[in-house]
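Before we proceed, please read the two lines closing this message. Report back on whether the structure tokens fit the sequence:
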Amino acid sequence: MRATAIARARATATARATATRARRARRTTTRAGVEEETNFAPIDATASDAPGGVADGRFGPEATLLVGFTESEVARWRETLDEIGADFVRATACEEATLDAPLGRALERLPREDASAAKLALGVPRMMFLSGMSSAEVMEIVDVYDELEWEPCVFACAVPKNYETNVRALLAEIMDDHERLTGEARCNL
């Protein structure tokens, strides 16, 4: 019976890995010739440094800033982080007023106790800013998000170059790069 459970667990893990690779392949499809025109930095999924090699170790607070997500989605993301052992990573919803704040300040802001009092930034592109994580952890977070089978989301990392840029400007720049790379349309800002 134990052997059957182990075999079933291995089969599940293999299926999950195959599905993750397929999602990653779909997600990384790019249009030829535009890679050099963007500000994207490659992420080495095995690296222990900040994504794109922009800093030794980690950069910024251990946090996720969820832009364009509903209150219930932010709550579910918090639960998901807890389930995977990332309970120390802050999950903060982006409020409308935060769109005009620097990314660093938005990531450093503590989540509200009563999220219903906040006017969330909805009607903007769904984006998750990740901070304080290694490249490998970033890839793990993206895979966990994909397993939830939620609406598509664009991921970006806090790096020294964008830390003082306001969130609205980053949304526009990143979505423009995303559109040029993938050919996918975007929401208006």
